[in-house]
Amino acid sequence: MNSRKLVVGNWKMNGSRAANAELLAGLMAAGPFGAEVAVCPPFPYLTEVSVALAGSTLAVGAQDCSAHEPGAYTGEVAAVMLREFGCRYVIVGHSERRAFHGESDQLVADKAKIALAHGLTPIVCVGETLAQRESGDTEAVVKRQLSVVVHTLAHCCAEMVVAYEPVWAIGTGRTATPQQAQVVHAVLRTQLAAATPKAAAMRLLYGGSVKADNAAELFSQPDIDGGLIGGASLKAKDFVAIVRAAG
Ligand code: PGA
Description:
Elements: E1 6-10, H1 17-30, E2 36-40, H2 46-53, E3 59-62, H3 79-84, E4 89-92, H4 95-101, H5 105-117, E5 121-126, H6 130-134, H7 138-153, E6 161-164, H8 178-193, E7 204-207, H9 212-219, E8 226-229, H10 236-245
Parallel strand pairs: 1-2, 1-8, 2-3, 3-4, 4-5, 5-6, 6-7, 7-8
The structure holds 2-phosphoglycolic acid.
């Protein structure tokens, strides 16, 4: 287990210049925090958010990147560009990307690889659907999703962050119990340990309806090293409460 937890706010396709400024002011006024904190705004806001957070302890991440180097890929954003605009993290393989944009395990792994090549830490999301959980396939699904990334990154795999996000818990108000989450995190940790001696120090985040009132118990599980927070990261008060629950 990594001793310093990481809490990441995934704003998804939300925000406005005014709302972002208010949110960031609230976060900066409440810090510094014991946990490491990052926010992932939509692409157009990255520059402004990076500038606003310069000199603070809060990091910036993106919600996706291209699997390609710069070139003729209309509508895509290259990892090298994200780095230039101050990003430290990039989320790859979020279930909404997998579901709405047909992202495959290999594409997600390629995105993680190019992110690392440009000095970004990929936050690789894995997680099962409700149907997969109900048919007893949770473990097989998350292991398959992670194994492609581990294989693609090879000796660099210890540099990523992994987020377990059960699809049925995202934005639904239905959180995995701390025990359900811990079981899957332990599976992922064991899988990573077979690939790298640094697995114990890697950060495995839980995501899916994390709220101020369930965060502390989730974060107290031995293999949960922080959270990836969607809806509750859009209000400073709620997000700060979650960050504080992480230590
Ligand atoms: P949620 O989203 O916290 O709104 O459930 C989490 C995520 O999708 O990263």
